[in-house]
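Q: Hi! Curious about what Stage 0 sporulation protein A homolog looks like structurally. Here's the sequence.
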Amino acid sequence: MRIAVCENNRATAQQLCEWIRQYCVLYQIPAAFQCFFSPSEFSNRKERYHIVFMAFGGVTGFAQTRQLREVDRECSIILVDDTQEFAVRCVRLHCTDFILRPVKFRHVVRSMRLALGGRV
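A: Let's find out. The predicted structure is below.
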């Protein structure tokens, strides 16, 4: 399974990756992780991902989510933002979940369960 974390802040990205890694270890889910620290870096990606945590924030993160959904209907997208209004837009783009900041480990657990279809 390939998982992408898109976050401008490196420390926040590392924390999010660590929580996802912990979840995967706990449930014995083999996963490869990739962090993207800018929207342009993510736009230039070559690989496809099973799960994307889109945490660029604001209009930029939402625009990246929309572009990703246009090219990949199967990807589980978890939008992470501090703006509640994006939750409604998130539903319209068929995102798997929306996490309102500040992110906590329990939010990651819920999102991973949803992304994996409740299998773990």
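A: A fun detail: The chain has five helices and five strands.
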